Amino acid sequence: MTTLLDVDATTLLPGRSALLDVLGLRRPTPPAAPTTGLVLIGLPAPAGLPLGAGQLVEAAAGLSGALLPGEWLARHGADAFAVVTEEPMTATAGRLLAALPPGAAAGVCPVTADRTAVDVLRLAALGLVLARLGEPGAVVRYPTA
After folding, report:
1. Where are the domains of the chain?
2. Are 64 and 73 contacting, i.e. CB atoms less than 8 angstroms apart?
3. Are the C-beta atoms of 22 and 34 separated by less than 8 Å?
4. pLDDT tens, position by position, 45-71
5. CB of 105 within 8 A of CB of 132?
6. So what's the architecture of 30-141 in CATH?
7. How far is Cα 107 from Cα 129, in angstroms, rounded to an integer?
8. What is the torsional sign of CA 53, 55, 57, 59?
9. pLDDT tens digit sequence for 90-110
């Protein structure tokens, strides 16, 4: 375990190492079925420029306001946020994307007994990459099974 005290200085949200800790804590014990999912939300960058602090704080506030009880929000990377949820991932992604400016996209991945926290985050990130190649507001689960 790293620490749950990892905080992003711009948004004051937990950061990547805290996210990995939470995913590890939510990993089911075999043979339990997955009940937790990760939704990775990527914000659109204006003309390839980095997002400003104000845009990140505004997005964090929008996402915080769209969370359901029990959901957990973290900052991940320069233009992404992560939500750990017990709700259906696709519906959660849709709800979260509706709280953001147009052009955001999402990658999702279930937390399973056979995947480490790093694997779950990597697969959700791959889904986000594929979602960004599609229409704005796209949600992609990678792998699909």
Report:
1. 30-141
2. yes
3. no
4. 776 667 778 888 999 999 999 999 999
5. yes
6. 2-Layer Sandwich (3.30)
7. 7
8. negative
9. 999 999 999 998 999 999 999
Q: Extract the tokens encoding 31.
A: 């043979």
What is the per-residue burial (b if ≥16 Cβ within 10 Å, else e) of 68-102?
eeebbbbbbeebbbbbbbbbebeebbebbbebbee
Percent of the chain clearing pLDDT 90 (strictly above) = 68
Residue at 40: amino acid letter: L
Which amino acid does the sequence have at 2?
A: T
C-alpha 145/C-alpha 142 separation (Å) is: 8
